[in-house]
Amino acid sequence: MPTRVANGVSLYYELTGTGERLLSISGTGGDLRQGPGVAESPLGQAFEVLSYDQRGLGRSSVPPWPYAMADFAADAAALIEAVGWDDCLVIGLSFGGMVAQELAIRHPERVRRLVLACTSPGGAGGASFPLHELVVLAPDERVTRQIGLLDTRWDEAWRRDHPDMVALMAQRMPAAEQPPEGLTNQLAVRAQHDTTARLGRIACPTLVCGGRYAGIAPPANSERLAQEIPDARLALFDGGHAFMLQDPAAWPAILEFLGGGTAG
Q1: Domain ranges in the chain?
Q2: Contacts by 169-177 with C-beta closer than 8 Å and gap 24+?
Q3: CA 120 – CA 181 distance, rounded (Å)
Q4: Of 38-42, 103-107, 197-201, where does mean pLDDT reach its minimum?
Q5: φ and ψ at 42, to 5 degrees?
Q6: Which CATH superfamily is domain 3-128+193-258 in?
Q7: pTM of structure
């Protein structure tokens, strides 16, 4: 099992594909065992992709509490070094986009180009939906709320007509009243995320992208990120939090940007 001790944490990671080096930072509760993985996405066909289970999740270790978003960013920076890379392209998805913001601010030498997908700056710039409030709900209610947040168009009538999506969400959301320690810690850090006043320190080329119908990270939050990051590009797509799977134009725009194109 490939692991590296990075920033004092044992991190499980996977390296796939060939091409330019790209670090993929996953969203809330990300676990490489869940699949489909990055290797199955267009990224895996175009780049050498480093993906990993963040601290407390999947097959990585659960370090003692407390810690902060800066620690998640330090993990990423240390893992880049541990696998022998000097720098790389970076894409952060949702919570991973929050980590990626901190990484680009605190460890700019590690990030050559940055994609911030379906994420938020926090604080005055707009926070993502407080997911820690969902874990105390009954499983059925939790699934219903989560689906509505994924795409604001998915009302009760839509859910009745798409039981397959409801069943999929039920599988992916923890059924227990109390989530695992690592996820509880991640949600607590997520709730405190705020880079708004420091976004001007991101110096690498940046693409901010999101879905027009996202409820977890609304379009206004993407707009604020693009406004505050110098020379950042903004691209909004026809979809919700999973816009990359919903809008066929999304992946080509992201790949073009990572390859040095204009995108969006």
Answers
A1: 3-128+193-258
A2: 169/143, 170/139, 170/143, 172/34, 173/139, 173/142, 173/143, 173/146, 174/29, 174/135, 175/139, 177/135, 177/136
A3: 24
A4: 38-42
A5: -60, -25
A6: Alpha/Beta hydrolase fold, catalytic domain (3.40.50.1820)
A7: 0.92
Question: Which of 116, 115, 118, 120 minimizes the C-alpha distance to 46?
Answer: 115
pLDDT digits (tens, 9 = 90+) for 142-168: 777 888 888 998 887 877 887 876 676
Pair 148, 238: CB distance under 8 Å:
no
Written as one letter, the residue type at 208 is V
The pLDDT, as a whole number, for residue 264 is 54
The answer to whether 225 and 116 have CB atoms below 8 angstroms apart is: yes
What is the gyration radius of the CA atoms in the chain, in angstroms? 17
Distance CA 14, CA 117 (A): 21
In this prediction, residue 81 has a pLDDT band, given cuts at 50, 70 and 90, of: very high
CB atoms within 10 A of CB 166: 17
Number of H helices, E strands in the chain: 10, 8
Place of tokens 């405190």: 192
Distance CA 154, CA 72 (A): 32
110, 87 contact by CB (below 8 A)? yes
Helices (H), ranges, the chain: 42-46, 69-82, 95-106, 139-150, 156-161, 163-172, 181-191, 219-228, 243-246, 250-258
Cβ atoms of 54 and 30 within 8 Å: the answer is yes
